Every structure is written in C-alpha cells, then in structure tokens.
C-alpha cells in the first residue's frame, strides 16, 4: 500500500472509481478537477502496483480552525483491509499539520460500516441532514472529531500508553472499522 498526494494525472483513475462507487451521485469530472487543484484541498491516493485502489480528500481553508473530510473511497475488492482507515488517518494527520482543531464530515445514514470506522477514530454524531443524499433520499449523519484529542490518543498509543480506542490498543479492528468503506454511499463512499 502506497499513499501519496494526488495530482491532476490521477483524475481519470479517480473518476473511474468515483463513478463505480457512486452510481447515483458521482461528482462530475469538472468538480473533481477543481478539488484536486484547490489550494484549500488536499487529496491522496492509495495505489498498489501502479493501480489506484482508493482516494480521499480534505478541505481545510488556510488559517481556519476546522476542516471537512470531502470523500474517502476504496475499490470494492480492496475493502476490509484497513485502507480506508489509512486514508482517513492521512487526512487527519494533514489537518493536524494545518493546525486544525475540529474535523467534520457527513456520512450516509445507510452506511453503518463507514460510521463505525469514524466512531472508532473518535468522531461523534452531532446532527442529521434529512434527505441530504439525492436522488436516493438518504439522510446525512453529521460527525465531528476533536483533532487535539485524536492526536493525543494516537501519540499515547505510539508511546506505549493505552489509547482511548480499544481497537488501537490491541492493534486489532472489527470488520466495520477495517472495512475502509466510503461513507457517501451504502455500497461504500464520504462526501460533504
């Protein structure tokens, strides 16, 4: 598994995975191109043997104290192997580097696997947006993470202390947390 910063050269592969993962509400190529080029965004890809297996994006405006997880998507064949968690942690590490204190995201209410992943990293539900995902009429669960708490738990785990998340303490994860599903869709996606 190699996680690296996404470039414009990744657009075609990203769009192929975007359309496969989100058949009813995929972003347009123009939207994704703008996201990749935005100075406020930071996108990463997960690739193996030159093949794109996932991507994720963060929006963190310079100087802002909050950020948004835009998307996390993993190919269906690659889910359940911790790739989604690795992409999420890469985004959270970048948010921390940018001195963000709170990270937000929306996740489909019909995607319990993605919700479990976020909860296992410390996100908490703070609200709902009824019928947010169209045309599917699916609610969005709005979640928030205190990035300072996440960072403290991670550093404690690295230093040998017992972290707050038992999954981190044992190095094991449950199937939901390891699934790496994208919170946007019931099949797998996150999008704000």
Key descriptive features of the protein:
single chain; 7-stranded mixed beta sheet; 29% strand; Aminopeptidase; alpha+beta
Q: How do the helices and strands follow one another from N- to C-terminus?
A: EHHEEEHEHEEHHH
- Rg, alpha carbons: 16 Å
Shape: globular
Please list the strands of the largest sheet in the order they lie side by side.
1-2-3-4-5-7-6
What does this protein look like?
It is globular and about 35 Å long. The relative contact order is 0.18. Strand 2 (41-48) and strand 3 (51-59) form a beta hairpin. It has a seven-stranded mixed β-sheet with strand order 1-2-3-4-5-7-6, sandwiched between helices. The chain is of the alpha+beta class. The protein has one domain (2-178): 3-Layer(aba) Sandwich (Aminopeptidase). The protein contains seven helices and seven strands.
């Amino acid at each position: 598994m190699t996680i690296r910063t996404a470039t414009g050269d990744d657009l075609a592969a990203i769009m192929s995975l975007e359309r496969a993962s989100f058949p009813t509400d995929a972003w347009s190529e123009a939207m994704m191109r703008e996201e990749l080029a935005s100075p406020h965004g930071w996108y990463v890809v997960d690739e193996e043997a030159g093949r794109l297996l996932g991507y994720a994006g963060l929006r963190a405006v310079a100087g802002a104290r909050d950020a948004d997880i835009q998307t996390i998507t993993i190919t269906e064949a690659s889910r359940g192997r911790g790739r989604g968690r690795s992409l999420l942690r890469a985004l959270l590490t970048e948010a921390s580097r940018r001195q963000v204190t709170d990270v937000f995201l929306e996740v489909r209410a019909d995607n319990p696997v993605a919700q479990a992943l976020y909860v296992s990293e410390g996100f908490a539900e703070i609200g709902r947006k009824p019928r947010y995902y169209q045309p599917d009429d699916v609610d969005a669960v709005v979640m928030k993470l205190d990035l300072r708490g996440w960072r403290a738990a991670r550093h404690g785990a690295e230093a040998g202390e017992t972290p707050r998340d038992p999954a981190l303490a044992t190095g094991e994860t449950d199937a939901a947390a390891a699934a790496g599903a994208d919170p946007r869709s019931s099949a797998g996606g996150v999008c704000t």
